[in-house]
């Protein structure tokens, strides 16, 4: 890799650390500032932070790789994601922003679940926190795998060393600046990702004489859109579109809604966020499609389809621009890892340590414990990522399904079902998570295959959790008058703020 590319990357690394230092000086004096940025985050930062932390390395590597291998089958995943993100902004964001304040200023998702039922019982909060830490460790390892592959493919650096470099930078600014650092870096990283995913497919396409030449070359390896429709099954379509269900339960995304400065700012965030997402996801799909066409037309060897963006970056651009595009991949990876580490640390400190501790803990000490939590989750994820044979998309899909099934139905029920009970909430979380884990790992089919080879695990997990929430609530005693009063107060406050 030419020296110019290393200069671009060095500038990017310094900028991320500088943002972390700025955020450290601005917002980490108390736990609310460290976890939620004092609930004063702008709609612009909220939108790009949510998008960047959502899309991660799989946007620039996993999704183009899927398009490269399967063709238009990957489009249905994208459609499901766009629809799910929009529904999240409409159904969850406004009410969650208000409800988390009404429920005694809840700072984390598990804390909101507990305070939503006006019950200091540790069971619901701790179970939620354990699931968050478990699935986020898996999710974070997916980001590290992407980082390791990037350094191995682009810089001929040992895969494991690439893991350490990726983790070292992201942990540094997350430890320093907390939520504000994560959000501000996500904003910058989202801008970089946007430019990269517009630039790469356009420049790659310019190598062809016409659209028909490109499509003919691509169809040598992948089926055309009409052929894809002919072979599409209902189960396959449902599995792909089902990715959208995951949005309602992703703690690192919905926590952005809790931190935005006002309900009225959510509309602006939605418009920015959905525009950003639509353009970038089309760019990711286009990169994969142009990539397979380019490989066929010009006999370009691509050993790992998930590295097609890297291949284009090195092949088609000046070294300075190539370094910028490498930074875009790192931006995607780091934005998600930092968000996941922070939410995991928040759950470890606020939802496990504080709940189990028998003594009062100062905010300053809690912030420091949170920083140790960031380091602990990072180390666990690093150990999982050591196996370079892991694919980014498979790791992300498993964690996405786990959160979507465990928390997605519960978030919606908490916001829209007044008589929801705590027992139902606990049963819904456990049933959703267990169903997903069984679907992924139980070798119940021929040749030891799991049920996830038939239908994406989020579908049965979401359905089981939803049914459990409804049934247990139906056969439980109604919640207390105070719980129902908080629900009514939230609706009234939301209406007042929106008027």
Helices and strands, with pairings:
Blueprint lengths: L2 H25 L3 H6 L6 H28 L2 H30 L6 H8 L5 H34 L3 H47 L5 H8 L6 H7 L2 H8 L9 H9 L6 H32 L10 H9 L2 H38 L6 H23 L6 H25 L5 H20 L16 H17 L6 H18 L1
Helix pairs in contact: 1-7, 1-14, 3-6, 3-7, 3-11, 3-12, 3-14, 4-10, 4-11, 4-12, 4-19, 5-6, 6-7, 6-14, 6-15, 6-16, 6-17, 7-12, 7-14, 7-15, 8-12, 11-14, 13-14, 14-15, 16-17, 16-18, 17-18
- The figure for the number of domains is 1
Low-confidence stretches: none
Global mean pLDDT: 83
End-to-end Cα distance = 56 Å
Spell the H/E element sequence.
HHHHHHHHHHHHHHHHHHH
Radius of gyration: 22 Å
* Structural classification: mainly alpha
Global geometry: globular
Which percent range describes the beta-strand content? under 5%
Instruction: Find the CATH superfamily.
Output: Sodium/glucose cotransporter
Keywords: Amino-acid transport, Cell inner membrane, Cell membrane, Ion transport, Membrane, Sodium, Sodium transport, Symport, Transmembrane, Transmembrane helix, Transport
GO molecular function: L-proline transmembrane transporter activity; proline:sodium symporter activity; sodium ion binding
Protein name: Sodium/proline symporter
Main location: membrane
Question: Can you give a write-up of this model?
Answer:
The protein is mainly α and 499 residues long. The protein has a single domain (3-393), classed as Sodium/glucose cotransporter, CATH 1.20.1730. The protein has helices spanning 3-27, 31-36, 43-70, 73-102, 109-116, 122-155, 159-205, 211-218, 225-231, 234-241, 251-259, 266-297, 308-316, 319-356, 363-385, 392-416, 422-441, 458-474, 481-498. Helix 3 crosses helix 7 (159-205) and helix 13 packs antiparallel against helix 14 (319-356). The protein is globular, with a radius of gyration of 22 Å. It starts with a helix and ends with a helix. 56% of the residues are buried. The model has no long low-confidence stretch (mean pLDDT 83). Its main location: membrane. It is a multi-pass membrane protein.
């Amino acid at each position: 890799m030419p020296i110019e590319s290393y200069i671009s990357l060095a500038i990017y690394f310094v900028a991320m650390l500088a943002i972390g230092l700025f955020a450290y000086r601005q917002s980490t004096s108390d736990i609310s500032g460290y976890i939620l940025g004092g609930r004063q985050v702008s709609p612009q930062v909220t939108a790009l932070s949510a998008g960047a932390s959502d899309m991660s390395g799989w946007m620039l590597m996993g999704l183009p790789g899927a398009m490269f291998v399967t063709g238009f089958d990957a489009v249905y995943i994208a459609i499901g994601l766009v629809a799910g993100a929009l529904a999240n902004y409409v159904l969850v964001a406004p009410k969650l922003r208000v409800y988390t304040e009404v429920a005694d200023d809840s700072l984390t998702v598990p804390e909101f679940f507990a305070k939503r039922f006006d019950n200091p019982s540790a069971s619901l909060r701790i179970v939620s926190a354990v699931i968050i830490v478990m699935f986020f460790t898996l999710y974070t390892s997916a980001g590290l795998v992407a980082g390791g592959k990037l350094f191995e493919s682009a810089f001929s650096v040992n895969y494991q060393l690439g893991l350490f470099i990726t983790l070292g930078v992201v942990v540094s600014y997350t430890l320093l600046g907390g939520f504000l650092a994560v959000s501000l870096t996500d904003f910058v990283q989202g801008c970089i990702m946007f430019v990269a995913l517009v630039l790469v497919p356009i420049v790659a396409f310019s190598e062809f004489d016409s659209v028909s030449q490109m499509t003919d070359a691509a169809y040598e390896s992948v089926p055309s859109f009409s052929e894809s429709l002919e072979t599409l099954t209902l189960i396959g379509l449902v599995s792909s579109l089902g990715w959208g269900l995951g949005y309602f339960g992703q703690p690192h995304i919905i926590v952005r809604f809790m931190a935005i400065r006002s309900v009225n700012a959510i509309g602006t965030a939605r418009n920015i966020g959905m525009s950003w997402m639509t353009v970038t996801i089309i760019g990711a799909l286009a990169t994969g499609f142009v990539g397979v066409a380019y490989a066929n037309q010009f006999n370009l060897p691509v050993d790992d389809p998930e590295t097609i963006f890297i291949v284009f970056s090195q092949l088609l651009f000046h070294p300075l621009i190539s370094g910028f595009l490498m930074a875009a991949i790192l931006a995607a990876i780091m934005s998600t890892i930092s968000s996941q580490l922070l939410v995991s640390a928040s759950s470890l400190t606020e939802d496990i340590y504080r709940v189990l501790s028998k003594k009062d803990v100062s905010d300053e000490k809690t912030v420091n414990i949170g920083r140790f939590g960031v380091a602990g989750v990072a180390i666990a994820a690093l150990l999982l990522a050591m196996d370079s044979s892991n694919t980014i998309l498979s790791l992300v899909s498993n964690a996405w399904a786990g959160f979507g099934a465990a928390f997605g139905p519960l978030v919606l029920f908490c916001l829209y079902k007044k008589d929801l009970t705590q027992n139902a909430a606990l049963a819904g979380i456990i049933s959703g998570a267990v169903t997903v884990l069984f679907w992924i790992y139980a070798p119940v089919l021929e040749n030891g295959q799991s049920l996830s080879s038939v239908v994406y695990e989020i579908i049965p997990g979401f359905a089981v959790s939803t049914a459990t929430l409804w049934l247990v609530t139906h056969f439980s005693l109604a919640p207390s008058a105070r719980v129902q009063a908080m629900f009514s107060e939230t609706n009234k406050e939301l209406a007042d703020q929106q008027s």
